[in-house]
Design a protein that fits this description.
The protein has about 450 residues and is an alpha+beta fold. The chain has two domains: about 325 residues, Bira Bifunctional Protein, Domain 2 (BirA Bifunctional Protein, domain 2), CATH 3.30.930.10; about 90 residues, 3-Layer(aba) Sandwich (Rossmann fold). Helices cover about 30% and strands about 30% of the residues. The protein contains 13 helices and 24 strands. The longest helix is centred in the middle third of the chain and has 21 residues. The C terminus is likely disordered. Adenosine-5'-triphosphate binds next to strand 9, strand 14, strand 17 and helix 9. Magnesium ion (MG) binds next to strand 14.
Length: about 450
């Protein structure tokens, strides 16, 4: 988790609302609007308000840590690209109306990048010429634009959206597949840390093209993909992954799972016993491809092998929909009162509800705890508004803060505060002194577990 400052509701730009546009069908879309996380500025284009932006940055940070763990290196490519590299790869015409095409003042054809295979291949080709510089994996986290015909479900199918896209470069197909499986393992860990069960599925390689591909899909009714899988996949646990080779992820590869455009119904029935057959809807949150020399040949990315031979570099590309994940996580984590953020990405870990604003003792205890959490590096949100307790409780539930501390005159007399867990609804009382060790214990600020 990144350390963001703590805030007071009275001065925070947190416009919660009850009014919803007619086109907000998905529950996550409604909750993101109601909880003041996002606002639409054009069809399929959103502004991220302070609360939503914190969540987005937390998701981004978890994705980043897991990319770094497998030695992918972070960089940043621009959003605007020259059309010529896309003409060279042959995708300029194929990509169709989803590509936002622009002309600069010199009448040169440019575009807002929907993905970056061409650009990264060109960058690689300019500077890497030898097997000695391989393997290499590069990634960036950057806004993409795809002029989707039907933007919907809020940030889950936007036109502008934030993606992590990584690219691997290897000397041979064998090494390329090793990079592919390392990324596969990193994805399993990433989604697990985000509090999601993402199922890897054999997938169609689509317009990116290529040889091997998996989509990572989370189960949700609003999902746009129809999926066919073995329910035993849901029982696997990525936090126990001991390494990042094909062998380590073998259980995920052994159970059948495919999306509707790839499913082989005979194979599905053959491999999945009836009691484990699961046909449902899902949301694609990540997609990995190994496509060999598809881009390296046209864009001239060749490297010299140990015996002096020139070969096209073997590539893969790996996307995660960071902004889509904010919606997808809400689809998976909510109840009738609002969002229930997993602690790992919650905008604040603790919400302090002062139920008697203006009362000297309540105000000073609230303020004291607020400062103490800041010292402990635990981001906290203090509701110090002159509102009725009911309104404060509702809002704190709606925005999904994992732990609520309720401060009122009666508790103060007994030298305790009331703590509520947003997810379970469980309430307990802690003395002022117990608070510190309690939050130290549950804080997600611990460093990520060591590399396998
Ligand atoms: P989809 O099938 O959902 O249209 P895609 O297969 O075209 O997605 P990829 O090219 O694989 O998408 O992009 C990588 C990731 O980017 C996807 O797994 C998804 O999480 C995210 N993504 C793609 N399109 C959008 C979009 N319009 N809005 C938000 N996120 C998106
Ligand atoms: Mg895809």
């Amino acid at each position: 988790m990144i350390s963001f400052p703590s805030d007071r509701v009275s001065s925070l730009f947190l416009p919660t609302t009850r009014e919803l546009p007619a086109d907000a069908h998905a529950l996550s879309h409604q909750l993101m609007l109601r909880a003041g996380l996002i606002r639409q500025t054009s069809a399929g284009i959103y502004a991220w308000l302070p609360l939503g932006y914190r969540v987005l940055r937390h998701i981004e940070q978890i994705v980043r840590e897991e990319q770094n763990r497998i030695n992918a290196q972070e960089m940043l490519m621009p959003t605007i690209q020259n059309a010529d590299i896309w003409q060279t790869s042959g995708r300029y015409d194929n990509y169709g109306p989803e590509m936002l095409r622009l002309k600069d003042r010199h009448n040169r054809d440019m575009l807002y990048g929907p993905t970056n295979e061409e650009m990264i291949t060109q960058l690689f080709a300019q500077d890497v010429h030898s097997y000695k510089n391989l393997p290499l994996s590069l990634y960036h986290i950057q806004w993409k634009f795809r002029d989707e015909i039907r933007p919907r479900f809020g940030v889950m199918r936007g036109r502008e959206f934030l993606m992590k896209d990584a690219y691997s470069f290897d000397i041979s197909e064998k090494h390329g597949l090793e990079s592919y499986y390392a990324m596969f393992a990193a994805y399993l860990r990433t989604f697990e840390r985000l509090g999601l069960k993402a199922i890897p599925m054999q997938a169609n390689t689509g317009p990116i093209g290529g040889n091997k591909s998996h989509e990572f899909v989370i189960l949700a009714e609003t999902g746009e993909s129809r999926i066919f899988c073995d329910a035993r996949l849901l029982k696997l646990n990525a936090s126990q992954l001991q390494g990042t080779t094909e062998k380590h992820i073998a259980p995920w590869l052994s159970f059948y799972a495919a999306t509707d455009d790839e499913v082989d119904m005979n194979l599905y029935h053959e491999q999945v016993p009836p009691e484990y057959r699961l046909q449902t809807q899902g949301i694609e949150v990540g997609h990995i491809f190994f496509f060999g020399d598809k881009y390296s040949i046209p864009l001239g990315a060749f490297v010299e092998t140990q015996n002096g031979q020139k070969v096209p570099v073997q590539m893969g590309s790996y996307g995660i929909g960071i902004s889509r994940l904010a919606g997808a996580i809400i689809e998976a984590c909510h109840d009738e009162n609002g969002i229930v953020w997993p602690s790992s990405i919650a905008p604040y870990l603790v919400g302090i509800i002062n139920i008697k604003n203006g009362d000297l003792e309540c105000d000073s205890l609230s303020q004291e705890l607020f400062s103490r959490f800041q010292v402990m590096n635990i981001p906290c949100l203090l509701d110090d508004r002159n509102e009725r307790p009911g309104v404060k409780f509702k809002d704190m539930d709606l925005i999904g803060i994992p732990w609520h501390i309720i401060i009122g005159p009666k508790n103060i007399k007994e030298h305790v505060v009331e703590i509520k867990n947003r997810k379970s609804g469980e309430r307990s009382f802690l003395s002022f002194d117990q608070l510190e060790s309690f939050f130290k214990h549950i804080s997600p600020h611990h460093p990520p577990s060591p590399s396998p």
